[in-house]
Amino acid sequence: MTAENTAPNAASEELAALLDRARAWRDQDPDPVTSKQLDLAVEAATAGDVDAVAELHRAFDRRIAFGTAGLRGEMGPGPARMNRVLVAQAAAGLASYLVEHADGARPTLVIGYDGRHNSAVFARDTAELAQAAGVDALLLPRALPTPVTAFVLRHLDASAAVMVTASHNPGRDNGYKVYLGGIDAGSQIISPADRLIAAHIDQISRDFTVDQLPRSQAYRVLGEDVIDAYVDRTAQAVAARAPQVDPAGLTFVYTAMHGVGWEVAQRLFARLGLPEPVIVPEQISPDPDFPTTPFPNPEEPGAMDLAFARAREVHADLVIANDPDADRLAVGIPDATSEAGWRRLTGNEVGWLLGELIAAGHTPGEPGAIANSLVSSPLIGHIAEAHGVTHVETLTGFKYVNRVPDLIFGYEEALGYLVDPELVRDKDGVSAAGLFLLLAARLRGEGRTVADALDDIATRYGAAASDQVAIRVADVATIAQATAELRAHPLTEIAGVAVTASDDLAEGIDGLPPADILRYRLADGSRVIVRPSGTEPKLKIYLDVATDDADPARARERNAGRLAALAAWWRERMRLD
């Protein structure tokens, strides 16, 4: 056979194998929508439609990896998408893992879900499959915040929990987040549990089609008492960490960003004696299409514009925003220098304020630690030291932050805060919102503002500032190429300032496990960290600067100028699209 004949035959065989995989997936898919999508794609690809063939390759040439973030991705048919087949395999694999590690007792699994497309369906599938596989499945009564699921796991001393959510990702995405009880105490999975669960999932996918997996309707739907318990315990914990204040007169705007935070947040605010917030009506109820903000992440430009407009109307003191699953908190304050008259505090600024509050209230001499991800501002370490509290840096992710011994506060610059590790072992935007509002009420009672409190921190600990460059890409492979290029050609200067030290965390460093992270320290005291996002197709570059200028206004100006120079340099260098 000639080379000319071999190539077409190989291509034909490859297409035939691809079509066989697609048909096999379709035949076990219980979802009529994705099954029909595959029908149409297979029909078009068979007829020679190159676009349909390309789409089938995107859907079937890889599988969403189950790792420390569980599963997360775009919804659609095939193993590279989030769908009922993939979720069923994950649910059955997780149940198999739990039974194997149950030491003879019947394990229990808490299942929560948010308001996204298919979240409730994925949750019910999980409950039916887990119950039939020898696990007592406990389904939350309706769409609720992620921290409620994390709380109920600890509250009921369950073996594990699943939260169906893609958090702040675009509406086309969904995800599957797994926590473990027992020695993990309600934390999100880390290695080796992630690998062991993934092995069970792979085994299930090889041995069974989804229609062969047994199901049971005998799972239990939990009652309102678990939500009551979350609100009661959170109110007690927040009040214990905040000064006694009269919050009357505080005016604040709240947005749920089309997510599930409002019901629980409203109840908590009322329990804390806070005034009824002014809501952003367009964003207050769950809407999986996110019509006013395609990227429902408070960090994204424009995501808080409606909240700021409402705040201007009512002359609010501040804005409180939860992301769609309410595990994150964003805060906005008035700012006369901003075009909108308002600005969103950085995640680090909120972390400094909450960390200072909690550290100052900690009993001297008692064990206590403040932890943050290594991409968060180093300033929190100075705050912890000033109050005699241990400071620990971890890898990015609350699955690491919340495991620090004697933890009293944990945070990540990506708007994640843990104000009471006894309540949940994950970031909690609802409890953090309640605590921040009490802090703002105290400041208001003293005739001061949140901006004044930030100036006080700058005076006591140094004027620091941070920013982030996020480069979104269509092909995640380009991110690996970019970090490989930085490793192959080490930087000696960044934005005109010499690099005095650089660390490659690929092999682990300072007791941290290996990670795809590069860290640079510059001659002017600045710090730059480069890492791929763990949940989105982004390369993230974290910028931290500081100045010893004692004048707050001048310090802000200098830091802003340095951050702008660093950001411009990286945007010019890292052209990945």
From TrEMBL:
Per the record's keyword annotation, is Chloroplast included, yes or no?
no
Report domain Alpha-D-phosphohexomutase C-terminal positions. Answer: 488-554
What GO molecular-function term can you cite, just one?
Answer: magnesium ion binding
Q: Where is the Alpha-D-phosphohexomutase alpha/beta/alpha domain?
A: 64-204, 228-331, 347-461
Q: Which cofactor does it need?
A: Mg(2+)
Could you give a single Gene Ontology term from the biological process aspect? purine ribonucleoside salvage
| Tagged with keyword Kinase | no
| InterPro entries the record matches | A-D-PHexomutase_a/b/a-I, A-D-PHexomutase_a/b/a-I/II/III, A-D-PHexomutase_a/b/a-II, A-D-PHexomutase_a/b/a-III, A-D-PHexomutase_C, A-D-PHexomutase_C_sf, A-D-PHexomutase_CS, Alpha-D-phosphohexomutase_SF
Q: Which Pfam families match?
A: PGM_PMM_I (PF02878), PGM_PMM_II (PF02879), PGM_PMM_III (PF02880), PGM_PMM_IV (PF00408)
Q: Cite the entry's keywords alphabetically.
A: Isomerase, Magnesium, Metal-binding, Phosphoprotein
Of which family is this protein a member?
Answer: Belongs to the phosphohexose mutase family.
Output this protein's name.
Phospho-sugar mutase
Organism lineage reads as: Bacteria, Bacillati, Actinomycetota, Actinomycetes, Micrococcales
